Fold these 2 entries.
Entry 1:
Amino acid sequence: MPDKMMPDHWGYVFAAYGFAAIAFGGYWRHLARRSRDLLSRRRGKEGGAA
Amino acid sequence: MRTRALGWLAGLALLAGLAVAFGYAPREAAQGNVQRIMYLHVPSILTAYLAFGLVLLGSIGYLATRGKAWDRLAASAAELGVLFTGVTIVTGSIWGKPTWGTWWTWDARLTSTAVLFLVYTGYLLLRGMVDEPERRGRYAAVVGIVGAANIPIVHFSVKWWRALHQPSTILGPEPSPIAAPIATALLVNWVAFTLLFVYFLARRIEIARLDDGAVDA
């Protein structure tokens, strides 16, 4: 065992996990919104052509 | 439908990753609990390597065949590679502050990772700047191939130069010195990140297909 162990620094741990959650969650929402927009535009085009 | 199932699987794997990172992996002997950032940081860069490897594959495939599917693969993987590299840099910086005493240092590993991030951000900007699809694909493929040269530089930088960053403990030439529970937690999170990447990639490629108007092609 090392003589001296570092303090826990939970704040840094939660900051890192929080950042990753925001980054991945934000990207997931971006993909969902973009996909919805493109699909509705496509349906609009198909409706207009019919 | 298959993509949605993949999403659920990735979500469950991420929950399992959190459970092993906080509930199963022990408190590390020297760094204490702050070492748990490793279960985010290392899988992120390994996933980024995978993404940029696919950019290389897609770029070569596009130049060889001019098939749009290759270009879509490269573009989608590049976007994800930038995302995962960004997460690597930020989580590494957060980990660096309590362990090294600084958010950032111009160490070989950190600098080469920042260059990797900038090269592929440039790749995405280039794609946004060229309207003509064939020219865009061709230019981007060249950057995608040249940029891949930086991947081994990032990985071996800690071996080639004196660096503050620790040497590779996995994917290195010697057997890994990591204790079994820590290695298990790392592996579970690596699998979870890979599933998340595959899910994001499937969705991003689908969007690229819709964008190209190639859904029925």
Entry 2:
Amino acid sequence: MKSSDNVWTEDEFNLMRQAAADTGNTVELLTWNTYTDHHLHAAW
Amino acid sequence: MNHNSYLDRPYVYGQIEHDGGGETTWNGQAIAAWDCGDARSALDQEYVDTYSGGSVYFSLGMLPHCTWLDGDFNSSGGSTNFSWSEVNGGFSQGNPNYPWGIVRTSLYVGLEQTRTNYNRAGSHSVRATALRAGMLVIQMPSSAAITCAEGLRT
């Protein structure tokens, strides 16, 4: 996932990552440096 | 590729080979048993093949079924803010198994909740650029460029 209307910085990534974490049931939630394009990978 | 038997496990052919130095390797192949008659067969095979060091079937024991009554595949779907084409066709190189995919409800729920949570900080929106079904996370060839939020692939 990426933001469609915000500059995709590490801070923005972490904001979205926390939003995913707050769902409380992710089975995978990867980090900024996992992929070279820095997309957020999450799995439920 | 021959998949003609509606089994819950792949056909496995091959043999263990010894290199003379004490190392043994398995040389063979595994073929998904389900013949869905269309692109679903290729998608099924992805669950058996090994990518990024793992195989969905051999790691999790999952081999999707393609029967009409209780099939695991979808060719439509979506949620309030995420369309079917977005979750199943947003791969950077397209979906080679169009229109099929495996997307679980858990993925839609997770995406919608994430979008809601993300919007707490202001007017942001989430674009899902490549999702696959709800749980797995081994990168498949068809999803090599996937920026994923996976509901299984499972």
